Amino acid sequence: MKKLIFITGGAISGKSTFALQILENEDDVSFIATGQVCDKEMKEKIKNHKKERSKTWETIEVNNQNIEDIIKNINKKFVIIDCLTFYVSTQLIKNKNDRILDSAKNIVEEINKNKNIKKCIIVSNEVGMGIVPNNELSRNFREILGNVNKIFMKNTNKAYFMVSGYPLKLK
What we know:
- By secondary structure, this protein is of the alpha/beta class.
- It has a single domain (4-169), classed as P-loop containing nucleotide triphosphate hydrolases (Rossmann fold), CATH 3.40.50.
- Helix content is 41%, strand content 22%.
- It has 6 helices and 7 strands; from the N terminus they run βαβαβαβααβαββ.
- It has helices at 15-22, 40-52, 67-72, 84-93, 100-113, 136-154, and strands at residues 4-9, 29-33, 58-61, 78-82, 119-125, 158-163, 166-169.
- A 7-stranded mixed beta sheet has the order 3-2-4-5-1-6-7, sandwiched between helices.
- Helix 4 (84-93) packs across helix 6 (136-154) and helix 5 runs parallel beside helix 6 (136-154).
- The radius of gyration is 15 Å and the shape is globular.
- It starts with a strand and ends with a strand.
- The model has no long low-confidence stretch (mean pLDDT 91).
């Protein structure tokens, strides 16, 4: 049984807010946060995102770990991974781009194997609707994240595309 919900859309489209709304009445939640403080703006964004989450939820901040290793040890019924965009970006910076697609497949496999998890919400940015980036690293990032998104979309039974705070159901 597929237990993934995939939420994609542009930057600031409401993806994270929608993910939180889906589980707002649940207490047994692990929130896997992939964003990392790299400047003042990101520090403020992370602080604001933390305020939006339920105080009863477990937050796991991804630093140098792989998400699939974190999923193996989750004992909550519900999981939110927010977001794949930062995770892929971090992996690219660490020069692990040859492993990212395998990691995405492993994350799906671990979610499906974990008997505790009843539902997992994955948040990721849609990167295929803009202009072609002008440098190799950005084009590589767009290519890899696009393929990671396809892996999750293929393995989900519900998917949404966010537009200006409004969820459009894809499947």
